[in-house]
Write the structure tokens for this entry.
Amino acid sequence: MALNPIGAGASVAIAVGAGQTSSAFDVRSNAIRLVAVGSGCHVVVGSEDFTDNATGVQPTISDFYIPSGGVATLQQKKASQIVASVDTGASSTVFYAPEGMQWPFGVGDYVGLSTSNNPDTDVDINWPTIVNYVPVTAVDNGSAGPYGSFSARLTVTATTNGISTALPTNGQATIIRQNKVCTFGGSDSSAGHLHYQQVQISGEA
């Protein structure tokens, strides 16, 4: 099996008897490789409410376990869509897909905004910083009927009405599914780190 790395790798701490959560990352591959160093841990990789290590979702002893020195490759769901237009708001924001296209997300998914192809650094700073690992609260994939909408709408929890720079709507802005990696160390008495890297699997080497 040959693995092709996608993007940069990172790591998240493994704490004894406690949950630790990574930063959000754009899902750009259907697989993620995990290596536990210094301690074993239970792990969850997903698009969930990991915002608070104390009260949010975190792994338990029934979740996937990686022993110290162990390596695992888990599946993750990749999804993205180009933004055609946006309605800013004080607490929620509505993004519109190009006409005839749908949103590949569901309520409860966490998403981010990518404008990496846009040379305007102000836009790159403002929009992706605010629309980063935000929950999807509504999905309306449109209807061409008499009371329908031709453009599919995606509503997320994000305050965007204070952004002074316009969102590019010429194919340079994309809503993309985001994941986090959350660890729980409980079986070992030592702390460690879980290294993770998105990969593509190309078959036998």
The helical segments are 121-130.
